[in-house]
Amino acid sequence: MTLPQLLLCLSLSMLCISSKPTEKKDRVHHDPQLSEKVHDDAQNFDYDHDAFLGADEAKTFDQLTPEESKERLGKIVSKIDEDKDGFVTVEELKDWIKFAQKRWIYEDVERQWKGHDLNEDGLISWEEYKNATYGYIL
Question: Superkingdom, according to UniProt (predicted)?
């Protein structure tokens, strides 16, 4: 091995040794949070209310009397109990929470669609999107 080759090999080795290691990426898929609120059952149940009812429905429950709230929650529990055996299983509760979250997403998409479909033809053109998003005048 010649001197230039040896120096090249040595410098490449030093470069590799002194280089910063690459960052390790998180390869685990994390479920999205069920609510923007802090999950602390010792303080309040706002997080649970959002997850169980959906954010919009939870806001309406905050304004009800305890009696009205109990009555409406009883109706919701009847909907959650899919097999009508009088008990809510963990799977039924998980399915309900997923349903409540998806319902909120679909309602938000519908709201956004109406806000961007300025001529109400059921389609959103690039011009409509620009106007609704960036405030350009038609």
Answer: Eukaryota
